[in-house]
Amino acid sequence: MCNLYRMNAKEAEVAKLFSARATTSVNYSTEVWPGYLGLVAVGGALRAMAWGFPRHAVSKKSGKPLKPTATNNARDDKLRGNPMWRDSFRDRRCLIPVTQWCEPEGEDRKNTRTWYSVPDETIFALAGIWQPTDDWGDAYSMVMVDGCKQMSDVHDRMPTILRRDDWARWTDGTPDEAFALLQTWNGPLVVDRTDELWSTRVVARSTPSML
């Protein structure tokens, strides 16, 4: 699963690559954590949305509603059956521009950041779905598939990387056509193992999860 990624290209560069309208009012994080604003391409425009669908729960002690948690990764095998994802997958698919995504590697609480990217691609697209919410406005989630061999020692799931020829099919195709694109990446990856600790910060809004 992915709980951190980078999108540090300029908006104009992203707009040109994705043939999307750029605006001067889009504010988004370049290092994106769950609950932060990230840039997505949808409906021919670039938009900033919150990363993670809000999930609601109540306190076991008091019975009072808790703050919603950000569910920022959606499993491919749950898209059609889980009510959280079903309608968005059918009607609201988007592209998530990314320069790198990150996974924690190593011993718990001492793990470090390992970054993944696509060779010769400054920006690439991950499969996403989105929905309007009462809590955070429009929000999006990444779609996850089985991990490839190159990252099997770090995690068994990975984001769905979409080839450029498949971008329009993902956003505008039928659900069956889109579902067929949910495949484990079979190309090479650039792997950047760092000594940087994963994080000591408090994640905005919630602890992320994946259904």
Description of the molecule:
- The structure is a single chain.
- The chain has one domain: hypothetical protein yedk fold.
- Helices cover 13% and strands 38% of the residues.
- The chain is globular, with a radius of gyration of 17 Å.
- Strands 3, 4, 5, 6, 7, 10, 11, 12, 13 and 15 form a ten-stranded mixed sheet that branches.
- The protein is built from four helices and 15 strands.
- The chain is mostly beta strands and 211 residues long.
Instruction: Indicate the radius of gyration in whole angstroms.
Output: 17 Å
**Distance between the ends:** 10 Å
Strand pairing plus helix content: what structural class? mainly beta
Largest sheet: 10 strands, mixed
> Roughly what fraction of the amino acids lie in strands?
35-45%
Order of helices and strands: EHEEEEEHEEEEEEEHHEE
What number of structural domains do the residues give?
1
Q: What is the fold-level CATH name, i.e. the topology?
A: hypothetical protein yedk fold
Mean pLDDT: 89
- Judging from the principal axes of the Cα atoms, what is the shape? globular
How many β-strand stretches?
A: 15
